[in-house]
Amino acid sequence: MRYLPLTDADRKAMLAAIGVPSIDALFKDVPKAARIKGLLDLPRLQGELEVERALGAMAARNVAVGSVPSFLGAGVYRHHVPAAVDHLIQRGEFLTSYTPYQPEVSQGTLQTLFEFQTQVALITGMEVANASLYDGATACAEAVMMANRVTHRRKAILSGSLHPHYRDTAATYGRFVGFDTVLAEPDPAGKESLANGIDGETSCVVVQNPGFFGELRDHTALGEACHNAGALLIVIVTEPVSLGAVKPPGAMGADIVAGEGQALGMGLVFGGPHLGLLATRDRFVRQVPGRLCGETVDVDGRRGYVLTLSAREQHIRREKATSNICTNSNLCALAFSIHLALLGEAGFTRLAAINHGKAVQLAERLANVPGVAIVNDSFFNEFTLRLPKPAAPVVDALAKRRILGGVPVSRLHPDRAELASLLLVAASETNTEADMSAFASALAEVLR
Amino acid sequence: MSDWSKAVSGFKSEGKEDPTMSGSRGLQEEEPLLFEQDAPGRTGVDLPEPPAVKSRLGGLARQGAIGLPGLSEPQVVRHYMRVSQKNYAIDTGIYPLGSCTMKHNPRLNEKVARLPGLADIHPLQPVSTVQGALELMDEIAHWIKTLTGMPAVALSPGAGAHGELCGMMCIWAALDHRGEHRKRVLVPESAHGTNPATAAACGYAVDPIKADAAGRVDLADLKAKLGPDVAAFMLTNPSTCGLFERDVREIADMVHAAGAYFYCDGANFNAIVGRVNCAELGIDVMHLNLHKTFSTPHGGGGPGSGPVVLAASLAPYAPLPWVVHEADGFRLVEHKDGEARTALGRIKGNHGQMGMFVRALAYMMSHGADGLRQVAEDAVLNANYLLASLKDELTPAFPGTCMHEVLFDDRFLEGTGVATLDFAKAMTDEGYHPMTMYFPLIVHGALLMEPTETESKDSLDRFIAVVRGLARRAKAGETDFFHAAPRLTPRRRLDETLAARKPVLRWRPKAGERQAAE
Amino acid sequence: MTVKYTKDHEWVRVEGGTATVGITDYAQGQLGDVVYVEVPEVGRKLEQGKEAAVVESVKAASEVYAPISGEVTAANGDLAGEPARVNNDAMGQGWFFKMTVANPKELDRLMDEAQYKAYVEGLG
Description:
The complex is a heterotrimer. By secondary structure, chain B is α/β, with parallel strands linked by helices. Helices cover about 30% and strands about 10% of the residues of chain B. Chain C has 4 helices and 9 strands; from the N terminus they run βββαβββββααβα.
């Protein structure tokens, strides 16, 4: 087998060196009833050609987003990833390296993490960021738990602008870890007022900007209301490209920013692996979950990097850890970081401007389709349409016409009849004039 | 055996001999931070002019600079190339890290993961347009269930520790459904830190169970601590001492008799894949690490994937979403109603680590039932070969043979003045990532080695020679040599105390330079 | 003035009605370089043997248990900026917090200097 270097001669020599007659002797502690005799009922060994063919067949049964006009968002965004990113993350030193617990042989990973942490702090307008978490939804749950630790309270208010996956994940964690989540009504109009609900038991208020329905809001006043009550403001960002054009959470008084970095560097990948982001203020740093990379010097006085503040983590605190997290989404963080390194200030802000421009153009086009209205006053690159009929069957009809025309809100808010006619539409620099024309015509046709 | 004196004599003092002007040394390039190479306006991506539109940002346009550095593509490529050179990797050499299963990452897996039909698909596009993706998830679920003998699997957890959390949540939910609110979880002292951290995260009090003299679970201690207040016993099998818990079925019976659940940490599944039916061990729930047994790349610390196999008693509580295979295709159950009303709910966004499913399935299909069984056998063989070849120089922690990893303690270093840590640093000079040290906690100065099946005998023989050589040097009293190690790595003995006392967690511009708006 | 010691390597020095608490020199040696100390808030009520503070080194984090019961009257604010005090002067400047003595009899259950010394030697 191509991945197994031992030859039969090797095995024989090694068994002799060990002093056992056969490999079975080394499995003697396995209870007889649990021993698998012979081979399991699964296919046998296959070469690369056969495996490629089988997986290629599965791939062929999917409609790749880039192959048709596509306007999908809802927390996962399609952007063009420069060719260099994928080449660099496939360097064996990055792809196949272990967690940097031995800093002397991991300065590659550690330096890139230090750069990543800096980039995330800069774009969110915060002071410090961690080395990433699994994804945006778990980062949101971790942010709430962090707020609970900081405030010694356990009631989180979750905005109606929050992505339902994030809301549900936080609620699941709340149920099992032991904190309360107060769920505000879904807020397509972007008009909710949460300040009145904050009391002396509130640990945090969690809002999303741009909101799930696309709306942009200034949460500075809400942040003040939180602070007056001793609570924290958590702002969620699911589309990091928005930070190239929109006032960042750090400038709105956010205490913790959590979000999703998928949009930069890694493509859609059917929802995973993605990249959880977490950023905060210096004074909360000891309550941050997950890994942190810090600068230091070595014995020769040269600058270097190490994982630090590890005493918070599971492998040391065990049952008293800030979180049970053991992994970060390291390679995804690297992809994000390389993409942002290539963009730089000028590229990132221009990319954001293009995205907003495309979305504005698309919104104008779609608003002209009879029966269609745009719900949002403001938006970045994603907005909500109100259709004259339920959106889910419309999306299916569009799919039959080879158009991926957005995500029906009912897919994520299934139990809300009043939201059934809402459609989330996203645009990016990858959408052409022709794409937008095709979408508008097809939508008009389907709605006739 | 190499000539030790030659290796040492050329090196004069602490890295300051033979300095270069650039700071680089031969092919070992020094590379500053991105932020130290900024030129305003420069970029590595060419983008067109944005469309001229009336802003719909609602007055919330960003003010002021962000502070991101501008570099061209050649500079970015060179930056990451140079920085990557400072990393050890499995592509470079062996990682004898216990319970990490650092095996070769096949490149076929990377190729198929990048097929547009698998990589360029959105989790929320209509289910009719991603039937191939759901089929793939169903297929890997089938492989996982067959390999473990268990009837159900939750695919969504994002990593091993996340899978542990998922498993404990399922247990909590099942007990809650029965109207029981048990408060304690039992965990062996030798367990990985995530086990007690996970149990505590779910609100359980954690009681440690002692290991016996042979490094296995002390049955008497377990029996004494089991009671109607215990929700679960978490066991790693094979254990973190590299030993198969031969009393596992008795343990399962004891745990079940107390009305508790038997959680198995599947981090060491590499030792038993294709050889052991986990359902027959009596387990109720077990997480697997696709980035361990199933070769998905570690990527410097992640991403991983931690699917959780479940007994029939726990299957109804699996987190969303569920992939359901109907006669006419695949469905995705995303909400807690109807058939899924007992489901945990979500523990993560979207559907699970699809990119890792593709890679792991390619790995499973490449090996097949026969190849996977051979994986476990070669993994166990390689570890025992290390044990047999080192046991006269190092001190095995426990007598007898081991499974896929071998545990030594630091008795062989007694009186030498050389600590396990120093020994490990000396290994890096020899071009090796050190073995796992100081874990498990139940053994003093532990050295835990897991070679995996993808190391050739040749590779093992060279590794053994170096370890034996270093052990002899330590016993010969060469303490200075060990305390000066490492001498040859890009950085040496980094000051972790300073990093923790005065944390500097990001780059900041010097006063007077361009400031980012905050 | 009496100084007493616990099996968990805390010391308590009672002067008048106030007790000062810290960790022993042996304990700081075991921990390694202390990087952070989490001290209890003034006013907190402590119970003998229950967790009172946390001391972190690079590789370990340890609970510090209240050697006696009482109420916290002061916490050592200097430790935030200079955790190394715990290493350099564990018995003096490295003190963690001060507290009232709710029940003087609790001190009788603790070891005196000679007993603690013997105890540490026995640990090997």
